[in-house]
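Lecture 7, part B: from sequences to assemblies.

Below are the input chains for today's worked example.
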Amino acid sequence: MTGWQQVQQAVIDRIRAGHWPPGHQIPNEADLARELGCARATVNRALRALAEEGLLERRRRAGTRVAPLPVRQARLRIPVIRAEVEAAGRRYGYRLLHRARDPLPAALRPLFPDGEMLHLIALHEADCAPYVHEDRWISLTVIPAAAGADFAALSANEWLVANAPVSDGEIAYTAGAATAAEARMFGCAEGTSLMRADRITRHDGRTVTRVALTFRPGHVLTLKL
Amino acid sequence: MTGWQQVQQAVIDRIRAGHWPPGHQIPNEADLARELGCARATVNRALRALAEEGLLERRRRAGTRVAPLPVRQARLRIPVIRAEVEAAGRRYGYRLLHRARDPLPAALRPLFPDGEMLHLIALHEADCAPYVHEDRWISLTVIPAAAGADFAALSANEWLVANAPVSDGEIAYTAGAATAAEARMFGCAEGTSLMRADRITRHDGRTVTRVALTFRPGHVLTLKL
DNA sequence: GAGTGGTCTAGACCACTGT
DNA sequence: CAGTGGTCTAGACCACTCC
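Predicted structure of the full complex, as C-alpha cells:
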C-alpha cells in the first residue's frame, strides 16, 4: 500500500483538507518518505506528477509549494486531418491547389529570416465537401528535402510529421467571419463564423513551417481535462 | 552521458532515421538498457515520457511500438480568468448578474440526473469592458456547499477550484455569431464572430458543473505544442 | 505459462539555487 | 555553503496479457 498514486492521493487530501493552503511549502521528499513509509523515489514520482498537472510548484533548494492558483491544464490531441475525417466514418479527400516558391509576405518575414520558402495551398475534404482550407509556408532553408516532396499525393502535414524533426511550437485559435471566397468554398453565407488556427512549428529555434487553417462552419475543438 | 533524455533522443533518432518505422516493435527495456549502457529504470523513464507524448505505444507483454500515426499533443493552460486579465496588465472586474435555483433546461437534463441545480450568470470585465460572459449550472447534489457560497464576491470558477474535488472533464470550443444581446453587451455588430467554450467538469462520474463561456470579439486561444 | 512493462527500494551522486 | 529536488543504479517483485 505504498504506491506513488497513494502518496499522490495523500498529498491531494491534505491540500483539500486545508492543512496545506495555496502557497504553503510542504515537507521535503525525504521527510515525506519517512512519514509515509516509502522510498524517496516514490515520493518524487508522486510529486513530479502533481507538479506537471499544475497543482504543485517545485524548485531546487526552494522546495515544493502548493500552487497559489491551481492552473488546470487540458490536453488537445491534434489529429492528422485524414485520421480525423476517417475516424468519423467519412471519405477523406485532399487537393493541392497551389505550390510555388512565392516571395514571403512582409507579415511573415520576422518568422523566417532566411527567406527561401515553399508556399502551399490545399483543401482537405470529407465526403467530397470542403473540410479544412490550408495555407502553408515551409522553410526550404530548414527543410531542404521539402523541395522535392510530392505534396499532391501526401498532405504536407503527414509528410512533415514523418520527415521533419520538430521540437516545439504554438497554435492560436480564433473565430473569424467568412470572406467571400471562403463562403463560396464552404457553401455558406459571407460573414459566417469560422474557426481558424494559426500554427507555428519550430526546431532548434528556427521556424520550420507556419500554417493557417480555416475550418468548415460548425467545427468543434474538443479538449480533455 | 547515460541520462534518460539521451536515451529518449537515441530512440527518436532511430525512428527519424527510418530504422524503426511506424508500427514497428522496438526492443524491450532490458535489451535497450544493455545496449545503451544504462539501468532499465532509465530506459523506462525515457520510453514512458515518449509514450505520454504519443510517439510510442506501450502494452504489457505486447511490448513497445512506434505509434502508427504520431499524434501530436498540445497543452492548454486554462487560466483563472482573473489571472488572465491581470497578467495582461488590465483591471479585472466581476459582476454576478443572476443567481437562482432555476429548473434545468431539457437540453442539460442528461448531464445532471439528480436535478437540484444552482444557476449563475456572470460577467468578467477587463478595464470595465466586458471580457467573458459566463452561464453556469452547478449541481447542488454533488456540491451541496455551493448553496451557501457568496458568488457575488468570488467568481464561481475560483470558488470551485478551491472547494470542489475535480477528476476530469472536457472543453469544447466553437465559433459562433453574436446574438443581439451579445452584440449589445460587447458593443459589436450582431453576427460578429465570437469564440465560445462549453466546459463540463466531473467527479466520480457525476457532473459537477457545466459552464458556457462567450468571449469578447478578437479573443485568441493559445496552446503550446 | 512466460515475457513484457509497471513499480518499489535503498543508496548514491549531482545540479541548482537561496542564504 | 548547505539544502533541496533531479537523476541514476542494481535488484526485486508484481500485474497484465498474449500465446
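Note for the exam: Chain B touches chain A through 45 residues (CB under 8 Å). Keep this in mind when comparing with the next example.
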